[in-house]
UniProtKB/TrEMBL annotation:
Protein name as catalogued: Alpha-galactosidase
Signal sequence annotation: 1-21
Organism: Evansstolkia leycettana
Family the entry assigns: Belongs to the glycosyl hydrolase 27 family.
Gene3D superfamilies: Aldolase class I (3.20.20.70), Golgi alpha-mannosidase II (2.60.40.1180)
EC code(s) of this entry: 3.2.1.22
Top-level taxon of the source organism: Eukaryota
Cellular component terms (Gene Ontology): extracellular region
General function of this protein: Hydrolyzes a variety of simple alpha-D-galactoside as well as more complex molecules such as oligosaccharides and polysaccharides.
PROSITE patterns, per database record: ALPHA_GALACTOSIDASE (PS00512)
Any Gene Ontology biological process: melibiose catabolic process
Domain Alpha galactosidase C-terminal: 342-407
Length: 485
């Protein structure tokens, strides 16, 4: 049994109703894709991008919804004498317009990067003061997505208004092009973008850059989360747990078209154990953080493929209700990790069709049984809520129960089976978006619902065995028959 040395029941907000998101028709569910930065940094070029795009298609990622291929920093060669950005000719001998055509021809979309400053973080030309010209040139190339950073911002931050004004300029410039361009803010959580960005952007980073590590203290990421206190210092080299613990205060800000972004996925990049990578991926889905892969696509291994292609978890990320899970409780525990901390947490929240998500996180160093009452899991209904009063029983589905085997994953990687074979042929079913947006998801689909592992009656408790640095991700579905009260 675990000794809870501290407990915190957080007064987190309900998912908001009727708040307005940016009206560009994009990111109605969290955007999915792949970004160059974590694996290639400044050594990106046309070859590595097209090779990655090919794999995104042939391994089946595209058909599961991973749509955007994003060129991060270092694509540019500066401005020409008319003030327009030009691509680096060695990296992109055929230009970016040509690359965009090729990406589009493979059924994918293309993203690009800049900074709301005089320079990008890698010291290439930034877009501050050039918003219209830059938006116009990207639109003319066929760009579908902008990741917009915060380096060299000339001190134009420190109040939400300063940050809003600086980022709104680019939002307006993108709109003026007439091309729908997904607008992804990367201002590291400075000035609370969850408050100022939802009307101008499709997503905003909640904190500093994520490192490829589960948990650690780092002098570069000094800001520790504390209830109700915004971290003014965004930091970088932040761990998975650090970024998570900073992001739990704003679940209600995530709405269709406007998402909290906890930074890109580190699945397949070598820094996380298999359990940690599963937990990281699951929590991002629960919190509606856009799933952007960053692994070297051409070197994708079986465990990586089978995490990133878990459609039961992706169906939570892409759930049409678009409601982020809340952290319901957090307890510190005695078994600690190398960082001298151990903690367990419960996340839950509504899914479409009346389903409910329950996610146990075990960030202690020992495997443990975790449990939660239906009152906790249906926290947003209040103590007398529907789960209790109506007296229904709920089926419990384990969303990791049908993880693709290494054998199937390797067959896909070795070209012996086609990409969508290991999961489901979403193309034949009308496309990923249509499959994820079925209400209710068909109970018979193990690919979308996982496996039924038990049931729970009103007033009952849900229990799961959770590995160290792992999660249990459960989907509760109401049974048809009403129990006697
Ligand atoms: C849940 O688990 C904890 C720790 O193992 C235990 O103390 C508690 O009694 C359990 N609660 C229920 C309702 O089973
Ligand atoms: C592209 O980048 C890769 C990886 O950095 C490198 O191996 C390759 O030589 C580069 N190709 C070109 C055409 O620059
Ligand atoms: C600069 O780039 C823009 C956009 O690509 C182009 O229309 C213009 O002709 C270029 N100007 C010069 C001087 O090369
Ligand atoms: C531009 O903004 C208007 C008003 O919000 C919106 O209706 C329109 O769809 C936007 N266009 C693009 C291309 O984003
Ligand atoms: C899948 O392969 C990885 C190593 O490639 C291994 O660690 C893991 O145990 C395998 N999983 C199963 C279920 O065999
Ligand atoms: C799909 O994968 C299974 C292994 O899980 C294999 O037996 C089957 O032949 C594959 N089918 C196709 C069409 O590739
Ligand atoms: C999936 O369905 C599409 C459209 O029906 C078809 O062209 C494709 O070959 C199928 N893929 C697999 C792996 O069966």
């Amino acid at each position: 049994m675990d000794k809870a040395v501290a407990a915190l029941l957080l007064s987190v907000g309900l998912h908001s109703l009727g708040a307005a998101a940016l009206d560009n028709g994009l990111a109605i569910t969290p955007q999915m894709g792949w970004d160059t930065w974590n694996s290639f940094a400044c050594s990106l070029n046309e070859t590595v991008i097209l090779d990655a795009a090919k794999k995104i298609v042939s391994l089946g990622f595209r058909d599961l919804g991973y749509e955007y291929v994003v060129l991060d920093d270092c694509w540019s060669a500066g401005r020409n004498s008319s003030g327009y950005l030009v691509p680096n000719k060695e990296k992109f001998p055929n230009g970016i317009s040509d690359l965009a055509d090729k990406i589009h021809a493979s059924g994918l979309k293309i993203g690009i990067y800049s900074s709301a400053g005089t320079m990008t973080c890698a010291r290439y030309a930034g877009s501050l003061g050039y918003e219209e010209k830059d938006a116009a040139v990207w639109a003319s190339w066929g760009i579908d997505y902008l990741k917009y950073d915060n380096c060299y911002n000339q001190g134009e931050e420190g109040t939400p208004k300063l940050s809003f004004d600086r980022y709104n300029k680019m939002g307006k410039a993108l709109n003026v092009t007439g091309r729908p361009i997904l607008y992804s803010l990367c201002n590291w959580g400075v000035d609370g973008p969850w408050n100022f960005a939802p009307t101008i952007a499709n997503s905003w980073r909640t904190s500093g850059d994520l490192s490829n590590v589960w948990d650690r203290e780092d002098v570069n990421c000094p800001c520790q989360e504390k209830e109700g206190i915004d971290c003014k210092l965004p930091g970088y080299h932040c761990s998975v747990m650090n970024v998570l613990n900073k992001a739990v205060y704003y679940p209600s800000k995530a709405i269709p078209g406007a998402w909290n972004d906890l930074d890109m996925l580190q699945v397949g990049n070598g820094g996380l154990t298999d359990e940690e990578a599963k937990a990281h991926f699951s929590l991002r889905a629960a919190l509606k953080s856009p799933p952007l892969m960053t692994n070297v696509m051409t070197k994708t291994d079986a465990p990586t493929l089978s995490i990133l292609q878990n459609t039961a978890v992706l169906a939570v990320s892409q759930d049409p209700l678009g409601s982020s899970a809340n952290r319901i409780w957090r307890y510190y525990v005695d078994d600690v990790d190398s960082n001298g901390k151990g903690e367990i947490q419960l996340f839950s929240g509504p899914l479409s069709g009346g389903d409910q998500l329950a996610l146990f996180l075990n960030a202690g160093s020992e495997d443990r049984n975790m449990n939660a009452s239906l009152v906790d899991i249906f926290w947003e209904d209040g103590a007398d809520g529907t789960a209790q009063q109506i007296g229904y029983s709920w089926d419990i589905h384990d969303l990791w129960a049908n993880r693709m085997s290494n054998e199937t994953a390797n067959a896909i990687i070795n070209g012996m089976a086609s990409g969508s074979n290991g999961t489901m042929n979403m193309t034949a079913m009308g496309g990923a978006r249509k499959v994820y947006s079925q209400v209710p998801l068909p109970s018979s689909s193990k690919e979308l619902m996982g496996s039924k592992v038990g049931s729970v009656k009103a007033s009952g408790t849900v229990t799961a065995h959770v590995k160290a640095h792992g999660v249990a991700m459960l989907r509760l579905r109401q049974q048809n028959n009403k129990d006697e009260l």
